Amino acid sequence: MNRRVAVTGAGLITALGIGKKQNLSGIFEGRNAINKIESFDIRGYRSKTGGEIQGFNFSRKLRKLKSSRLDRATKLLLTAIDEALLEAGLENALPADTGIFFGTTLGGMLSGELYHRNIVLGKKARPSLLLDYLAHYQGIHISKEYGLNHTAFTISNACASGTNAIGFAYNEIRTGVVNTALAGGYDTMCEFTFAGFNSLQAVTQTLCRPFDKKRDGLVLGEGVGIVVLEEMSSAVLRNANILAEVIGYGESSDAFHITRPEPEGSGAALAISRALTSAGIDALDIDYINAHGTGTPYNDVMEAKAIQKIFGAAGKNIPVSSVKSMIGHLLGGAGAVEAVITVMAINNGILPPNINYETPDPECHLNIVHKPGQKTSIKRAISNSFGFGGANAAIVFQSVNS
To answer: Which residues contact 58 (CB under 8 A, 6 or more apart)?
Structure first.
């Protein structure tokens, strides 16, 4: 059984804004949402900037949860899910057997940090902080709040987690395990991760410049991306507004190094190839590539090689961009946020810009979208995610008008 899978709703929160409307505006403008970190003391760190979400005030009326006991990650998820359900027309009619598929690397790390800090300082630490810290607990909270009874899956597969979660949900619907799914990824800005990436010297002290010859590192960000996925005929039957169709998903693991990507891009290319095969299309059928594009020297050359392996000479013409230049690297949330942005690109006919790109790198010979506001027809697009440890994933979306 291979059923078709529709995207009927999406929710998005990044440093560009809260909700898809604000994010679309920022993408049109090519706005740099990277600013000085405000949520913790950055003295002593080589990097000082990140893609923090500004102006997020959680005031949602909860039915079964207590706001005071929720981590920031859960609050971001609830807000994005509400947006996605409203667009899908399921805000009051979400089936109880809806599957939950979330990707994250940190879970409720802010709660874990607070618990640890209180212990170190000799203060009383609430045990509930440890529950919110666990990466699978955000899914449990969502199941409880929305009254869902299906299994909640949490994927923690480094920076491919968000794409893996959507791909997993796609396969579960395609094969008839579930009819409806909430899928996506999330991560919050926290000092634990910031310190880790600083110690790896993987962060830039200037600007994030994916694929630029002068690139020297990534910038961390935070955010959440959620999609409502449904079996196509069911979505059509209830006259849902179908945003796009998921038509292919591929993954691989090259297990080359704990942090450094396999230099030739073989594993990444395999994930892309599997996604295209799953979709039943050729490389030439892709109109836009949403790149993983972290802005680190090793990653971008690897991804460029992977694209060139699969797309050949055509890879020099297909538009490619990384939104991490605007919002930062969202780790486990990156693939899901970028998947939502890819669907937005298809629906609005706009190419997300790869800002800060000035000096072409001969080792990254790609058609980089460096100017904002460029419009084009996008029938099919692929979104790539490549994580630490050789975790590779790619997902293909198609316009409903194709």
So the answer is: 67, 75, 78, 79
**Please, what is the average pLDDT of the chain?**
96
Q: Which of 141, 190, 208, 329 is catalytic?
A: 329
Q: How far is the first Cα of the chain from the last one, in angstroms, to the nearest whole number?
A: 23
Instruction: Quickly tell me which residue has 């994927």 as its tokens.
Output: 155
Closest alpha carbon to 157 in 94, 99, 105: 105
Helix or strand holding residue 20 (H, E): helix 20-29
Question: Cα–Cα distance between 307 and 229 in angstroms, integer?
Answer: 27
Q: Is 329 a catalytic residue?
A: yes
Q: At what angle do helices 72-88 and 137-146 cross, to 10 degrees?
A: 40
The predicted-structure confidence for 1-33, as pLDDT tens digits, reads as follows 689 999 999 999 999 999 999 999 999 999 999
Provide the token pair at 31: 């706005």
Integer Cα distance of 333 and 387 in angstroms: 12
| Catalytic (active site) residue 159 | yes
E strands present in 232-338: 244-253, 288-290, 319-321
**DSSP structural state of residue 47:** -
129 to each of 115, 288, 294, 398, how far by Cα in Å? 6, 42, 31, 41
Task: For residue 269, give both structure tokens.
Answer: 């290319």
Q: Which domains does the chain have, with CATH numbers?
A: 5-237 (3.40.47.10), 248-398 (3.40.47.10)
Dihedral, CA of residue 206, residue 209, residue 211 and residue 213, to nearest 10:
-40
The answer to whether 297 and 201 are in contact (CB under 8 A) is no
User: How far, in Å, are 31, 201, 231, 357 from residue 387 at the CA level?
Assistant: 26, 17, 29, 23
C-alpha angle 136-202-160 in degrees, rounded to nearest 5: 35
Active site residue 190: no
Out of 141, 150, 208, 292, the active site residue is 292
Listed in sequence order, the residues at least 6 apart from 94 whose beta carbon sits closer than 8 Å to its beta carbon are 85, 146, 148, 180
Is it the case that residue 402 has pLDDT exceeding 80? no
